[in-house]
Predict the 3D structure of the following.
Amino acid sequence: MINEAVLNYVILFVLLESYEIYWQKAPSIMGMLIRMHKYYRKSIFLFLLMQPTFYFSIGFVMLSNYSIASMIILFIKTADIATKILLLEQVFRKKQLSHELSLILLAPINGFLPYLGLVTYPALIILSLDGLSV
């Protein structure tokens, strides 16, 4: 049985993740990058502030006593932001894309893909706090 504290963390994470999905969602990865670039070009700090689940995951790792599942969340979130920044730099600053990368970025993405985190991360949060008295 999930206790109230775990449920609160799951709900908070789902709300924050939904916000990120809302402002990043597009029919292709290039569309997502264009939406992200609007904030990135203003300031990298603004772009980073618009990733609240990253900061949640940092705090959550400490709260869960560095459990493996919480570390997985933090690793995925860190890799996600790093990949976004690298792609933004490659596409909009360096403007050097291989033909294959261009095709990948322009290809339509499946409609469920942005929502994958709404299933994966809550499961990891529950695993992180399983057995802990929060």
User: Anything to note?
Assistant: The chain has a mean pLDDT of 93.
